[in-house]
Amino acid sequence: MRKIRVIKRRIIYQGPVIRLVHEWLKTSQGQPMIRETIQHPGSVVIAPLLDREHLVFVRQYRRAIDREILELPAGTLDVAGESILACARRELEEETGWKASCMRLIARFYAAPGLLSEQMHLFIAEELTPVGAHPQADEEVKPVILSLDEAIVKIQTGLICDAKTIIGVWLTLGKLASSKLHLKH
Amino acid sequence: MRKIRVIKRRIIYQGPVIRLVHEWLKTSQGQPMIRETIQHPGSVVIAPLLDREHLVFVRQYRRAIDREILELPAGTLDVAGESILACARRELEEETGWKASCMRLIARFYAAPGLLSEQMHLFIAEELTPVGAHPQADEEVKPVILSLDEAIVKIQTGLICDAKTIIGVWLTLGKLASSKLHLKH
After folding, report:
1. Which of residues 47-106 of B touch A (CB under 8 A)?
2. Using CA atoms in the order A158, B47, B140, B16, what is the torsion angle rounded to 10 degrees?
3. pTM to 2 decimal places
4. Residues B48 and B29 in one domain
5. Of A18, B81, B85, B157, whose CB count within 10 A is highest?
6. Residue B130 Cα, gap to closest chain A Cα (Å)
7. Is B121 touching A (CB cutoff 8 A)?
8. From CA A166, how far away is CA A160, in angstroms rounded?
9. Statement to judge: residues A21 and A106 lie in one domain
């Protein structure tokens, strides 16, 4: 990778979750470059498999886009000292009311690397048992069970329009096809 | 969709591309809710098909994650009055050096709707002719041609780790499988 030199760096905003940074840089070719980036602690996304054909989604209002959307359960890595796995377990239980005996990290990807540092860690959750949802006080999250076929149709028709959810459904399908999952029929 | 009431709204930062907004809200149930969101004009992503088996990617340094990654060509809808289609044509040409006779909008999705309003518009570009790349002065973008099989392996092994690119490759595969594209063998 080429070397980037930081000439000047200004933190424009530090919030509870994100930090907005303005930087004056110089490329290896000596070219000046100005970048605004958002530093983010990263997040987890969970594909909770009820059986080989059904996933648990959540429906919730997202302020950034001012609409309700259908997503896989997810959450920010914002609790100090909490592992990625523990965060995924907690978010799954809080948002869907299901607890998993088996969690498997299957992928990592960046949500919007042109602007945002957020890396997403995708888990498949298996061997689920119901425990009752308990979302955070300011969240209204409604679990929705869909078959993988229904989810694929919703992706194709734009009714599922969230990047992490599209990726989660497809990677889960791929993993099921390669039959490496523990699920019993 | 439920009604959200805005109690107070503060623009923390207005940059050339993004706006950071802090809001105090009240849900339909009267529950207070504080949200920080990033307003973004949206973007285009292009899957440039050289033939039925090869796509043009770009390799570039992304400051937000401080590394070079392999992506589909993309760009922000930041030129006043420019249509989404014109933006996609311009970005394709600037970043890859290929011009397309046929552009097809195949999907729209949100990059990170928990935080960011950015909607991505995914095009398949066909009937390409080389015109020579001319990236913006502060961008160093290198075109890379990969077969779809190579791209799928890179997704499975984490070497392609950008959400829009993962989605672009898969949706292109799906469209090719359903044989609705113009490409001649």
Report:
1. 61-69, 71, 74, 76
2. -30
3. 0.93
4. no
5. A18
6. 26
7. no
8. 7
9. no
**Dihedrals φ, ψ of B137, to 5°?**
-50, -35
**Interface predicted TM-score (ipTM) of this complex, two decimals:** 0.93
Same domain, A29 and A62: no
- End-to-end CA, chain A: 47
**A137 close to B (CB below 8 A):** yes
Count of beta carbons in the 10 Å neighbourhood of residue B168:
29
Contact criterion met (CB below 8 Å) for A109 and A155: no
Q: What string of pLDDT tens digits covers the 185 residues of chain B?
A: 557 899 999 999 999 899 999 999 998 888 899 999 999 999 999 999 999 999 999 999 999 999 999 999 999 997 778 999 999 999 999 999 999 999 999 999 999 999 999 999 999 999 999 997 676 666 689 999 999 999 999 999 999 999 999 999 999 999 998 865 555 44
Q: How many contacts does A have with B, using Cβ atoms within 8 A?
A: 173
How far is Cα B95 from Cα B97, in angstroms, rounded to an integer?
6
Residue type, B76: T
Unique residue bearing structure tokens 């829009």: B164
Domain that holds residue A26: 5-39
Q: Are A111 and A164 in contact (CB under 8 A)?
A: yes
A173 touches chain B (CB under 8 A): no
